[in-house]
Amino acid sequence: MKIGCPKEIKPQEFRVGLTPAAAREAIAHGHSVIVETNAGAGAGFTDTDYIAAGAQILGTAAEIFAAADMIVKVKEPQAVERKMLREGQLLFTYLHLAPDPEQTKDLLASGCTAIAYETVTDDRGGLPLLAPMSEVAGRLAPQVGAWTLQKANGGRGVLLGGVPGVGPAKVVVIGGGVVGTHAARIAAGMGADVTVLDRSLPRLRYLDDVFARDFRNRYASAEATAELVREADMVIGAVLIPGAAAPKLVSRAQLSEMKPGAAIVDVAIDQGGCFETSRATTHQDPIYDVDGIMHYCVANMPGAVARTSTIALGNATMPFLLALADKGWRKACEEDPHLLNGLNVHAGKLTYYAVGKALGLDVMAPHLALKAA
């Protein structure tokens, strides 16, 4: 198979879909790899690194899309990239289709087969290709939230850990999954007073067993959420429903009850965000003010630490990448139901139920797509 990796063009996105190490592995399996010039520069990988791994460097994205059997990326294809996709081509990347009807429409029109990192599962009920970026985003959230709280950025002017004689900031993390757990650990490590909200009692028991000395947890009733959000200096949104639009858990009316200059960090913004007032921002212009509350809603947070993120993502995607290349997508998905869960689009048909529900579109069962032309 000819595997192509174009340079990411989403604003302020510095990650790359294929590391030189992954390229070397694919080539060792008998495949060829083509990489757009300077695709890895933002993550610290040079064209020379890819050439040393055995890859070929091409000058433009158009050449990559025209020649490759499989396109490997990080972020969802932008409008100009979607026009270059073709029938029968395999796309392997993050898609986040539920809040993005335009992308969904274009992918369906292209006739391509698209497998989304964020809906591939594992035998423990986890999301192995989302987890590395969730870990990165979770660990970044208190860091960027602390920056947002600085007075020069419109925040309350509160130091997360306080100082002797002055109490720490109160941080509320909504969601106790991968993002929320990592966010809580880092915020607590910075000295903040941290509470995690979740609706899964088994998860709350786990958090209590493992992290009781670091942070508290509460059941995420509407009453408890409203109470804690009202008292918080920072609220981190870390709720995920795989493949679906994020639920809106904090209303605009609740903002008026928050402390002036409090910070909101919405890590769920890729799936539409879990605050009513959330809208996607970029690293170049990351924060905005709604009713005196500072919102940090960057849609590709891990791109800020592109090298760490790229290597972590590459470690996770490599086994699936090799399976798709070695066996072809049909056989790979037939043999691995967890990879089949990543199938979102095939030959003009939507194949992921949560996306269809969110966008009001018909869905073909993914196992039927395996038999479709």
Please tag this protein with its features.
373 residues; alpha/beta; eight-stranded mixed beta sheet; seven-stranded mixed beta sheet; 36% helix; 16% strand; globular
Please provide a brief summary of the model:
By secondary structure, the chain is an alpha/beta fold.
Q: Could you give the count of β-strands?
A: 15
Oligomeric status of the shown chains?
A: single chain
Helix content class? 25-40%
Helix vs. strand class: alpha/beta
Label the overall shape: globular
Largest sheet: 8 strands, mixed
Radius of gyration using CA atoms only: 21 Å
What would you say this structure looks like, in words?
The protein is an alpha/beta fold. The chain has 15 helices and 15 strands. Strands 3-2-1-4-5-6-14-15 form an 8-stranded mixed sheet, sandwiched between helices. The longest helix is centred in the last third of the chain and has 22 residues, at 306-327. The mean pLDDT is 96.
How is the topology of this model organized?
Elements: E1 2-5, H1 20-28, E2 32-36, H2 47-53, E3 56-58, H3 61-67, E4 70-72, H4 79-82, E5 90-93, H5 101-110, E6 113-116, H6 131-148, E7 170-174, H7 178-189, E8 193-198, H8 201-211, E9 216-219, H9 222-231, E10 234-237, H10 252-255, E11 263-266, E12 287-290, E13 293-296, H11 306-327, H12 329-335, H13 337-340, E14 343-346, E15 349-350, H14 353-359, H15 366-369
Parallel strand pairs: 1-2, 1-4, 2-3, 4-5, 5-6, 7-8, 7-10, 8-9, 10-11, 11-13
Antiparallel strand pairs: 6-14, 12-13, 14-15
Helix pairs in contact: 1-2, 1-11, 6-7, 11-12
